[in-house]
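Q: What structure does this chain adopt?
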Amino acid sequence: MNGFVGQYEHQMDPKGRVSLPSAFRREADGDRFVLLQWEPRYLTLFPEEKWKEVQANLLEFRRSDPDAWHNVRLIIANAVEVSPDKQGRILVPAALQEAADLSGTVLMSGNLDRVELWNPGVYREVVQSKAGDIQKFAHRLFG
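A:
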């Protein structure tokens, strides 16, 4: 199977560690990830291969637009490299926990080429309430 799919809820421990589901670890084809917040209210976990693409996009953005330097700085300043420990947990730094309002239960949602970390209540508020009617485009997606 290709892509990160499904949702899992795991408890974040007092040290800020949360289990990365085994299905996501297998799909990543490696143990290095980059964790960051590029949109408000959730975090994105990029596997190493996808991060290389994102990094190339950031470099091109910075090269092509002199005004982009500060935006790229802000994005990269809050990015961290993480690797699952022997128990499959990743460490979410305190600043990123606070930025995404993460504590207690963390919802990990696969999003094809990346994994998103959400506060479950915020996920319901933002994603489920604003998704709209999937039937409007479902036939275009699924045939």
